[in-house]
Amino acid sequence: MSTTGLKLAALGGPFTFNALAAAAIVARNPQFTTIAYYPTSDEVMQAALRGEVDAACAPEQTSAVGFHPGMLARMTAPEASLYVIAEVSRRYDCSLLGKPGTKLHLVRQVFGHDGSIAHSRSWLEANLSWAEIVIVGTGSETAAQSVLQGDGSIASVGSAELAGAVGLVELAKQIDDGSEVNYWAVSRYGRFSENPTRLLVTGRFGGDARLGEVVIRLAEAGYVLVTSCPRASGLRLYEYDYMLRLDGIGRLDDVRAALAPFYSARLAGAWEIRR
């Protein structure tokens, strides 16, 4: 299994929010060399699951709405077999894009992907209360083409880079109140750093002390818990599927030894944060 020359899947084309994050991952992680684009988020993930690409660029959490429910479910399900091999955090920087010559008061519909709309909805409802918000299943580049081909009554939420690339104008800038997004490179193969600075541990824990014991053992290995996200198992009271993020400096062998006594815990990622 190669750890160099990796291909990363991204949504849309080079100027979607997801693709800009993928480009940042590639720039900071030399094991990646190529980005492949897919028309929908589901196809991005399926490409990684089928092995067409080495990893998929996918949002993990945002400052506006927290953990991404789809990613949480994929990573914490008892049968989960995905791994995180890199990540990047960045500002969303949503702009409202329109056809050249149009004015804000002429806009009657706003197209956008679910993520960009979630971050921009407050601004849109405050400043375009009369406009219909339309969630599209494809990337922001497809929505931008609808704007370009329209009569000026359609706008879309997209990046400033996208506006320049397709010939739209920014009717408004930074309409997401400074939202941030963390993206993961998710793979069906575990590629672990020998000296990771971030860990992702998933597992099912109930109303006993095992979860606390996991955290203590990992602390002894050099890693402290920074975030924890639970998802109810749906089977028993106080039983949850957890996603634990830990930061520190240590050795992969010590991490594995710390987790070995816990049958329900899985090391779902051990990588180095690159800035």
Description:
By secondary structure, the chain is an alpha/beta fold. It has three domains: 1-91 and 180-191, 3-Layer(aba) Sandwich (D-Maltodextrin-Binding Protein, domain 2); 95-175, 3-Layer(aba) Sandwich (D-Maltodextrin-Binding Protein, domain 2); 192-275, ACT domain (Alpha-Beta Plaits, 2-Layer Sandwich), CATH 3.30.70.260. The chain has helices spanning 17-28, 41-50, 69-76, 114-127, 140-149, 160-166, 210-220, 252-259, and strands at 6-11, 32-38, 55-62, 66-67, 83-91, 95-98, 109-112, 132-135, 154-158, 169-172, 180-187, 198-205, 223-232, 240-248, 265-271. Helix 1 links the parallel strand 1 (6-11) and strand 2 (32-38). Helix 7 packs antiparallel against helix 8. The model has no long low-confidence stretch (mean pLDDT 93).
